[in-house]
Amino acid sequence: MTLQTLNIGKANLEIFSATLMELAEKDRNILAVTSDSRGSGKLVPFGVKFPDQLVEVGIAEQNLVGVAAGLASAGKKVFAVSPACFLTTRSLEQIKNDVAYSNQPVTLVGISAGVSYGALGSTHHSLHDVAVLRAINNIRIVIPADNFETREAILAASESNKPIYLKFGKKAMPNLPRTQEKFEIGKASTICEGDDIAFIACGETVAPAYEAARILEGRGIGAEVISMHTINPLDKEAIIRIATKCKAVITVEEHCVNGGLGEACASLLMQEKLFIPFKIVGFPDEETITGSQTEIFNYYGISGEGLCQSALKLLDM
Q1: Where are the chain's structural domains?
Q2: Topology alike, domains 8-173 and 177-314
Q3: Please, how many CA atoms are within 13 Å of residue 197, restricted to the half-sphere of its CB?
Q4: Is the bond leading into 277 cis (omega within 30 degrees of zero)?
């Protein structure tokens, strides 16, 4: 089964909006707070149906997070929605102090994340957010790969009493296969199994990792693909299992190679003394090219063929 034969679902943001509307219908304490982002966050229908459950603060991300934390302290279940590139830079102090340090159960939703705004250039890229938030205590970081993981993540966030950062892109995603129909924050999901090489990916990079696995399968190489949808807390058991099972590991992320999923996995493997061929695929420490998300992915080797070549080189084949 290749990406071409998989059923293409909706954009994860659309699933986020639909799921939030279901929750808001049953619970008047569910609120969405936006920074002039209800359109890009697919929340226009939410605002029409639940005008009293949507708060618009305008282009003021610091206020967005502060207001969300205040509402959460008053017993509301708040989803604060803003472009990821601005949410995790302009309001970082409020995320650290008002949400994480104060332990307010706010769900921060970074939309159009990674290079979803590709053509707008580096000012609108969000390739730093995981690194920044990993350094802050008491915030979980979740990056769903497809519609299934998105819906489950929203449902989990609605029941959580802890701060969460959710990261979504813009494009329609394929409905990926998985070995078990279960989602749990902090527990990785296995997309397909193999013994030669493992791809540990998150978010919208899981799909090209799966495509690479299918290409490698045609060459007689068994590739395992893991959706590491939760970056914090990291599923250490899954990483150790993979590293002791496979001959090599590649991490794939829509993020700078500094401070993200790859470095988190590398740190764990070093501390566990698991020394195997290992490669981080992401965005190097350089000025990122401008183009569509697909064009940028292809340029940096985040594609089925690109990851296949990285695997063959790592396996020295």
Answers
A1: 8-173, 177-314
A2: yes
A3: 31
A4: no
**How big is the chain by its Cα radius of gyration, in Å?**
19
Please tell me the distance from the alpha carbon of residue 31 to that of residue 34, in angstroms, as a whole number: 10
Burial 71-99 (b: 16+ CB within 10 A, else e): bbeeebbbbbbbbbbbbbebbbebbbebb
Average pLDDT for 135-139 = 97
Give the pLDDT confidence of 144-181 residue by residue, as tens digits: 999 999 999 999 999 999 999 999 999 999 999 998 88
| Predicted confidence (pLDDT) per residue in 3-40, tens digit | 556 788 899 999 999 999 999 999 999 999 999 999 88
Q: Which CATH class is domain 177-314?
A: alpha beta
CATH number for the segment(s) 8-173: 3.40.50.970
Q: Considering the entire predicted model, what is its pTM?
A: 0.95
